[in-house]
Amino acid sequence: MTTSSLDPRLTPARADLAAAFLKGRVTAKRFCEGTRYQLIDGLTNLYGAPDANTPLQTQLLYGEYFTVYDIKDGWAWGQAEKDSYVGYCRADALSPDLHPGTHYVTNLSSHIYSEPNPKSPAVGQVYMMSNVAVINEIPQRGFVQLADGNWIFAPHISKDYGVDPLSEALKFLYAPYLWGGKSSIGIDCSGLIQLAFAATGVFLPRDSDLQAEMIGTTLDDDAVPQRGDIAFFPGHVGFMLDDMHLLHANAHHMRVSIDPLRDVIDIVSFQTDEPPLRFIKRPAED
């Protein structure tokens, strides 16, 4: 098997270096075991090249694990553990000190404080579905202490997942659009789907084409869409709010919006020669 037959988005392989588990499957000058790091910045950009002026591929959230295969000139090249995405991020956003997550952030965002006091200095900001490591679940002034000695407001985190991806996605209504974004300060269409399902304990791939392979069953052409179905377009995806309206992060309005499905189909039809609506899928029920 050659590198070209593997998805480069999910394959930690370059001409000069590849992950050891790919030995015999790809061609590279050298293979190595990766080193596991953890994200310590609230939001970290992942690029396809070690250059912040190149297009954003995706973003990594606080507490995520990232396997690093190479560090050079301040850039770390590796693979995200959650969705297997490969790319380059700033090395100073990573720490070799690992604190296994105990809770995840349920608020769109939350601040981390140096003391259990909202008037104390905020030392960072974390975003929905970030993992945090709580060492004492007994609140002090409403805050719980984290493994690094800082504090977070207890009602903003949880051990328990939600039950409805669409309800989780609606939290992002009117959030600005950002290609590759995965937070309330900027999100794209597949990022919205990925985060909404993650909030219910279902972990999907990052991009819409990969999500289409995993999500549920395809509706017949004459079937009536229902709340929570997922509509797939060429290079785009969104939640059906009901049988006629779509919730989606989009570049047309540059935000997360609710639009008539018919309007979205018309807009997409001007952007592609493919059928503007590929299919609608119904997620599997537990």
From TrEMBL:
Annotated keywords: Hydrolase, Protease, Thiol protease
GO annotation terms (biological process): proteolysis
Superkingdom of the organism of origin: Bacteria
Coiled coil: none
GO molecular function: cysteine-type peptidase activity
Keyword Hydrolase in record: yes
Family listed: Belongs to the peptidase C40 family.
Protein name: Peptidase P60
Organism of this sequence: Paremcibacter congregatus
